Structures are given as C-alpha cells and as structure tokens.
Amino acid sequence: MELFFQQLINGLSLGALYALIAVGYTVVYGIVQLINFAHGEIFMIGAFGAFATWTVMGRPADWPATTALLVLLPLMMIGGMVAAIAVAVATERFAYRPLRGAPRLAPLISAIGVSVFLQELIRLFFGTNPFIPSSSWPVRIPGWPDAKSAVPFPSVTGISGEIISIGGVTIQMPAVFTLGALAICTVFLWYFVNRTKTGRAMVATSQDPDTARLMGINVDRVIVSAFAVGAALAAIAGVAHGLRYGNIDFRMGFLAGLKAFTAAVLGGIGNINGAVVGGLVLGVAEAMATTFIPGQFGSSAWKDVWAFVLLIMVLVFRPQGLLGAKVVDRA
Amino acid sequence: MSSNPDESGVGVNAGEVLLDAHNVTMQFGGLRAVNDVSLRVHTGEIVGLIGPNGAGKTTFFNCLTGLYKPTAGSVEFLGEPLPPKPRLVVRAGMARTFQNIRLFHNMTAIENVMVGMYSRTQTNAIDAIFRLPRHRREELASTKRAKELLDFVGLTGSGDSLSRNLPYGDQRRLEIARALATDPKLLLLDEPTAGMNPQETRQAEELIFKIRDLGLAILVIEHDMRFIFNLCDRVACLVRGEVLVEGTGKVVQNDPRVIEAYIGAPATEPDWQQPGDRPGEGVADA
Amino acid sequence: MRAIIPDALKLQLRYPARAVGILGALAMAAAVFMPWAYGPGALDNMTLWASPSPLQLFFGVLALLVLALLAIPLVGKPKLGRWAHILAWNTSAKTSAISALAMAGVAAIAIAIELGGVVNLDPGAWVALVGGVLAVTATLFLPDSPPPSLERVKSAKWLQITGIALGMAAVLFGAAYGLGLSDAGAFLTFAAFLVGLVLILRQFGVFDWLSIAAANNRQVLVLSAFTVAFAFPFTQDGSDATMSVAAQVLIFAATALGLNIVVGLVGLLDLGYIAFLGAGAFTAAVLSESAFATIDFHPPFVITVLISGAVASLLGLVIGAPTLRVSGDYLAIVTLAFGEIFRITMNNLDGNDGPNLTHGSNGIPGIPDLSLLGFDFGQPHVILGIDIGRFANYYWLMLLVMGLIIVVFTNLNHSRIGRGWVAIREDELAAEAMGVNTFALKLLAFSGGAFLAGVAGAVKAHYDVSVTPDQYVFLESAFLLAAVVLGGMGTVAGVLIGATILKLLPEKLRFFSDYRLLLFGLLMVVMMRFRPEGIVADERRQLEFHDDSEELADEVEEELIAHHAHLNPDREVFEL
C-alpha cells in the first residue's frame, strides 16, 4: 500500500508537469484547430531561458533558502517565461499566421519545421561550434556550456535535493513545486478564462471565430494571447523539469511534448480542465505501469510505450477524451 | 405533432414505397431540430419539402442520408432499414446534392462525375497497379458514362473545365450529374435553385422533370414557392422541426397555417438556429 | 530592379547599355583563358593561362550565352523574322549575366577561403567578376522583352524525342560530373552553374517545351530515364565513393516516394514513416543469415522482402485503423508517437527488458550481402570492361525497387483510387456522401505506403550490413518529409529532386553538416510560406495551396485541355 501511495505521488507530480505543458496544446487547438508541434520546444526554451537568466545573473550558488526562493527562483521563472512567450509569439506570427486558410497540411508541416529549427537553434546557440567555418567569429558565448549534451540545471536552495516524508512516503521538493505550480496556474487560468475580457474573448473565438470577429473581437490578438498563455505555463513546466531532473537538454521538448499532447487528448483536446485532468491521469498511469505490470514489460524502459498505447486506446474508445472536447462539430 | 402520410394525396405517378421515414426526431443537446417527422416517397414521385429558415429541413435531409443518426424514429429505404453511413446510403440507391455546393472544386467536371461512380465500380489497388483488364474496362466505361451524364444535364463540352471555373448554375448542374453518377433510385436535392435567376430556375425545373422521366424519385428542398408548386406531386411543409401540412401543392399552398408560417406570425418567426439554412448562404460559399 | 530604372531611361540608354554588356561578356569569355587562383589546391586547378579547367569552361558557357543574347538582336527584327520573339532576349541576357556573376562570385569566395585570403585570386577571377558586374549592370538598363514563345513551337516527334534524349544525357553527365567533385568549393561552384543554367533554360521556355514533349512521349521518357539511371555506374569507373552516395540517395528517394503516396496523394501527415522502414530492415535482419539473427528461419531474399513489407504494412494497419477514423491531425501525432514506440521497443527487445529479438541498441550486425539468382551483390563484377562494385550492385537493386514504387505511385494516382484520394483531400465529407469509402482508401494508402517502406528497408538492411534502432529516429522522418515538401507533394520528379538535394548537399558539403537540421527546419517553414507546392509543382496541389488564384486555375485548365490527358485512361501506363 505504501508503494501504491508512493507511486501515486510520483505519478501526480510527473502528471502535473505534463498538465502544465498540455494546457498550451489545448488552448491553441481550441482556438485555431492547430496542433502546435513546436509547443514541446517552447517548454524546452522556457527551461533554457531560466538557465540563461541564471547564467546572466552570474551563476549564483549557495544562496540562502529565503533569497533563493524569493529572488532567484522567481527571476529564473520570469526569464524562462519571457523567452518562451517571445519565441511562441514569433512562431505564431511568422510560421502559422500566414498559413491560416491554407490546407490543414501546411501549418502542420510548418510546425514540424519550427520544432526542428528551435531544437537546433538552442543546440547551436549554446554549442561550441562557430557559426561560420574557419573564421575567428564564434557566436558561442564564452563561459556558456555546450548544450550538445545535457546541461546541469542550477540548483535552488530549499527545493533542489530536499525531501519531505509523510508516513513512509517520500516526496521530493521539486515534485511539491510542480504540484504547487499546477495548482496556482489552474486557479489563474480559471480566473483568466472566466473573469477577464481576453479570456472571454478566447472562449468566444473558440466557439465561432467568424462571429467573434463580427462582434468586434480582435481574433489575431486572441490567438496570440492563447500562444502566450500556453508558453508561460510551458516555461514554468520547463523550470520544474530542470529542478526535478537536475539537467536540461535541447531534445527534452520532443518526448515531453508528445506526452503532453497525449494528456491533452486524454482529457479532451480543446478543454482546459481536461488537459489538467489528462496530465494527472497520464502521469499516474505511467507510474503505476512501471510498478504493477509484472515481468519484463513493467520495467521503466517501457513506460513511454505504455503512455502512447494509452493515447491510441483513447483515440479508439473515447476520441472526445475523458471530459469531452469543447470543440464544436462544424460539419 | 405527427402526420400520417397516408392521409395526404399521393402523387399521380406514385408506385411502390421507396423511402419511408417514420417519426424521425433529431435532438442536438437542448435543441430539437427535427421532431417526430414522417414522410414517404414513392417511385416516380417528386416530393417537395418547404418551410421557413431553421425549420430543420437540412437536418432532416442529413438524417435521411446517413450523415446524422436520428435520435429517435426509423428510416427505411426499399423496405430495409437505412444503413448507418453516408456511403452505404449511396450504395443503397440514394444520392444528394448540397445546399452550399460541395463539388471537388480543383477537379475537372468529368472527374467530379467519375468520383460519383466510385461506389458502382470495383477496380481495386491490384487492378490499378498492374493495369489489369478490369481497370481498363471500367475506366473506359466510366469515362463514357460520365460524358453521357454531362450531356444529360447540359454540360456538353465542359468536361475538361475545373469545376471551380464553371459558372454558378453549371456548378449546380454538375452536382446533380455527380449525384446521378451514383445510379440512385432516389435523388435528394437541397435547394437546387438557390441563387439562380428565373431563367436558370426554369432550366433546373426542366432538368428535374427529365430526371423523373428516367424513373427516379426526387425529394427536393426549396424556398422558391412557385418552383416547388410547379414541380412537385406532393409537398410537405416543415415548421420548427415538425410537419405542419402535407398534401398536393394546392392543399399546402392554400393552408392558412403555411401562409402564417411564411408571412411571419409571432410564433413562427424564423429562428437562425441552423447555420447554413439561410437563403443566399449557398451563393456566398460558391 | 525593374521599378528602379525608369522605362524612358532604359529606352534612351539601350545602345550604350548593350555595348557595355557585350564588353562585359567578352571580358568574362576572356577570363576563361586566364588563371583564377594562385595555387592549384583550390577548386579544379585554375592556375594556368590558356588552359581552362572544366569549371572555367562551364563559366564560359554562361559568358557566351550573355554574349549571344546581347549580340544576336543587333541583327535586327526584320532579319530575325519569326525568331525575334522566340526568346525573351533582354530578360534572358539579364538572367544569364546574373547567373554568371553569381558563379564567378561563388568561385572567388571558394578560392579565397580554400587558399586562405583574397590575395590568392589571380587576374582571371577579377576579370570575370568585373565583366560580370558590367554585364549585370548593363542588362539592367535594357528594356524588358515580351515573354518567349518557344513552348508554343510545334515540333516533330523525332525532335521531341531527341530533346528528351539530350535532356537525359545532360542529367547523366551533370550527375556524374557533380558527384565526382570531392572539393566542396568546386561542388558549390558547379551547383551555382547548374542553378543558373536551369533558370536560364526555364526562361527560354525549354522546360515547358520539354514537359509537353514528355507528355507526348511518355514511354520514351520513362525508358530513357531508366536507361540513364541504369547507365550511371558505368560513368564512375568502379569508384565506390560516388556509387555509395548514389545508392544512399536512391534508398532515401525510394522511401520518400513511398511517403509521398501518404502525404502527397492523400494528404495524411505521417511522421513515423521511418519506423516502417525500420520495421522492414529489422525484419530482414532477423531473417537474414547473420550470426546475430534471432529467428531461426532464413528464407530466400525474395520471400524476406515480402515478409518485411507485410510486417510493415501490418503495423500500418494497427496504427492506422484506430486513428484514421478520427481527425487527420491526430494521425500526425499518433504516427509521431508510433515512431517513438518503435524505437523504444527495438531498444528494449534485448533479452533484458524483453525477449531478445534485436539485441537492443547494439542491433543486428554482420548481415551478409545479398545473393540473387547466383548474382553476389558483395562481389565486384566486370561488365563491358568497367568494374561494377558492391555499391553499384545495390544501386541497381534500389533502382528496381524505385521503379516498382514509381509504378505503384503513378498507376494508383491515375485510377479510380487516385480520384478517390483527391476527393478526400478536397472535401472528405462530400466524398463520403458520394459513396467513396474514405476510411478504406486512407487505410489503403497508409498501409500500402508502409509496405513500400518495408520493402525498401529490407534492401537497406543488407546494404548497411548492420541494423540498429538509432538509425530510425524521428529526425529521419522529418528529413523524409522535408524531401517531399521541398521537391513537390504528389509528384515523382519533384520528390526525386528533393531527395537528391537533401541527401547530396550534406554529403558534399561536410562543413555545413552542423547546420543541416537548422536549415532544414527553416526550409520547411519557408517552403510552406512561399512555395508549399515544392520545386516541381503538381498542378492540383498548387491549386489547393493557392485557393484564391483565379489566374492559376485558368492556366491549369488550359493545360489540362491542351494535354487532354485524363480523358484517356491509358495514359502513364507502365506495362509489367
């Protein structure tokens, strides 16, 4: 039973990470019916943004817990969010907006291109290779690590490496941070969608973009804010990922993005609450699979496979997701 | 309110029962778009379906063609329950056109018609890859038949035109040719004259009679009263999802409730519930 | 540029401009016989007087084109008669001058980089550059010509066939020469020449003319294309380096063509296509005679190929059946996930985390060479006095596989099934309402495409000698997709060109390998934005991507009527 609760906690904290990313997929899909493949990369850029902020701050280490939690962590999160939002908005502007009204294939392919491009950009930006061959002008910033392999994520006193134990169940502080972040973000999202003008404009646009436009809603701005909200949450997830695993790398967005998309589908794509629920369910399912599936197939090497099998099962048996999609049937 | 089709006048040319919709109800969430509608179509008959905007005509059409599954009630075609998928409905012998023309607009006219023959041809991947006799035979036969159909609807010589380049009236005709290519026993036309001028409307009327003379039954949705009363052996008037009156053109035309529904007594003011049920929308989409 | 220089000024200056242009062209022509580089290490030894290197001669071709295009109109319109408007003389002169200058520029930069500094440029390079600048500037001041009319020239059948043959010979020569260039600078200079030449010829209307000729002589075209491709190894004189690249290009192109059925014809985005190639490769590997093969059943290769294809298409069915019912967007992401499942599973079936089938990340090494009907693919053979090595053997085999895929692609495309696919792409709901079995057609494309990938994978396993999971990752799928998008969705020629470019450039330009993916990512975005139909456009695809262009629609219709193609069901028939 202890094992069960331990895995439940592990699963929930992992799921919270997925949920934070999944919101970005779902919000964007709800409004423009676009699967933003590059969203995983936005998550990755959030993590690297936070890392860059820390580097620019002079790599502070060993700050006492209060300053680390009240100054360093918020600054890193803001840095990550700024980077992620900037990239997400630029992506929308240059890669997706010109393709509105084009066949569905076009933005999907563009999104793949953006995804590959962003990964490589981070690899090269942090990498050791100069941008121009046999010249003496390296773009590489001196003293910055090479992102070709994993980069150690700065540790934040009070979170990194800390553990709480409750009755035999150990909880890592980064997991608490992730769950807390999800809780706060959910409340914020609820407020944003239901109580702010922009949020209500988003709901209206997702239901009928043409009518929304006629009612004087600036649809372009609504779409940009959807991308921005998703990016902000993904950046928080990026920081949480760094704290949880202790390192980040330029490829981390690929798998995380896929899982988060699975979570979004699980909850019902287009449905914000669904993304949160889907993320948590997926995390728990993954944790439970590694514990309770007997034999070789229960080893952690298979956990990603089980997650994707779950995705396919959902599509077969309940394509509208657990909570049902909010997408209107436009047949 | 339900209506028993047997009480109303059955057309002069009527033969056996082709389509038998029985107490069909279609509910979307809280909205009951079609309520307990019954309708019969016999062979060789032209039946009209009129009603103000948002009355549920197109929804009812979608129930008949397998696009929607009715919430309650049953639809029988040739005595068999209606298959659950649009393409199976086509196979069974019912074809339709769309209110806002839905041609494959980057295909040529003849290609559009040949797509309509899909369910009546058998060439499979192996035949096509190895160019086996069946492929050649069917391609030749399909091309020939497609040309005949284009001639039949009056599009002689337009076979190579991209359907998007055709004039509006020709697009409507091409859609009919494409539907005829499926070899239907019953043809469902959704506002075939929407957006047409009087001359084009008259031509459409002639075309529909010509199709009936081939032995097909036709169920047609229209707004144009004169058109429908000229054309139809029997007319049903749908208001707010229910059949208000059914009978010969004269009966329906003179029914005070129909006049009221159209001229707009407060209770029957058109509600814009059904997107795409507005007149002129087909024009905008074309 | 056109807008900058007013037409009145152009008219005023047309004679001096033409004179200056001719001067520039003469200077460029002279530069051919002068040394360009101080040392022989750069490009293909351009250090000699009066002894031009091949690249210099190519440059000479462009220089002469400029000269001819500027000089011939001096004869005067009356004397030229109907030839006066066959070419857009001035406009083409401008294009040629720009191409020549670009080629000289690339060469100069390459020399400077390879020899370490601008001082290594000899007079010839400077003369070429100055001549180029003169010619370009002068041609900018010439009035524009009316569009050319070459494609409207009626030509006899023998002329068309000769044209096709000449085109094919040029392709063979270009490929043999370009692939033989090991120096990156030389390759780039040659590429600049080729791009320039293609642009000029396109402006001449040569390609329009050729496409009409090709449409009229399908059989000749197909036959000559395969003859040329078949003859390619004979131009290499046993060189393994080039043939190995060529075989890789073919494997890549064949796989991309298979993907093109799914993406180009049906419009389904399959992001896990590489996994089907991998499934075929692993199947062939475990059934091979390798000492590491894990299944004790070693059928002959003909059977193995079919099993590989079947396994891949079975996987396609398993993935496709549930996802093709829901929206097409889901398919993209599910195939992406499937690609991951495949990679992870192949890694895990190592006897540790699962039953031992693939030896995990070590994969299956030591796959023996193929031997078909007594023909050992591993051994060099001497044919017509020329050594045909191992890579050339596989090249021929892949050519066969590719032929098969092209036949499947074209014949399906031009059939009842192909029409159904177009209808699905255009309006899936209407297609279903017209009786088209959309689900079955999508599934057919998806699992059929997987089958072809499986077949290609089976050959690849033997060609690569070893099969490991890390050869079949998502980036490879993205790479295949890039080939389809760049070349032109729904076309055979386009995808061949796209695959060749994407596979060849990194091979030849090693220094750029680090930026390869960055550029490909960017390329996909830029292509979708500006030319979603690709280099070689499928007409219908082009229409779909430029939905609001009435002009394009009329153009395409005109062409359709001209070719009158689809009324003849026998077109593009490949008898087997």
CATH architecture annotation of chain A: Orthogonal Bundle
Order of helices and strands of chain C: HHHHHHHHHHHHHHEEEEHHHHHHHHH
In the predicted model, the low-confidence regions of chain C spanning at least 5 consecutive residues are: 565-576
Shape verdict of chain C: globular
Whole-angstrom Rg of chain C: 26 Å
Largest sheet: number of strands, sense, barrel closure of chain C:
2 strands, antiparallel
- Strand content bin of chain C: under 5%
Overall mean pLDDT of chain A stands at: 84
- Reading side by side through the largest sheet of chain C, how are the strands ordered? 1-2
- Oligomer description: heterotrimer
**Approximate strand percentage of chain A:** under 5%
Write up this protein.
- The complex is a heterotrimer of chains A (331), B (286) and C (576).
- Chain A has eleven helices and four strands.
- The longest helix of chain A is centred in the N-terminal third of the chain and has 32 residues.
- Chain B has 286 residues and is of the alpha/beta class.
- Chain B is 36% helix and 22% strand.
- In chain B, strand 9 and strand 10 form a beta hairpin.
- The radius of gyration of chain B is 19 Å and the shape is globular.
- The N terminus and C terminus of chain B are likely disordered.
- Chain C is an all-alpha fold.
- Helices cover 66% and strands 2% of the residues of chain C.
- In chain C, the strands form two sheets. Chain C has a two-stranded antiparallel ribbon with strand order 1-2. In chain C, strands 3-4 form a two-stranded antiparallel sheet.
- Classes of the chains: A mainly alpha (331), B alpha/beta (286), C mainly alpha (576).
- At the A-C interface, helix 4, helix 9 and helix 11 of A face helix 13, helix 14, helix 19 and helix 21 of C.
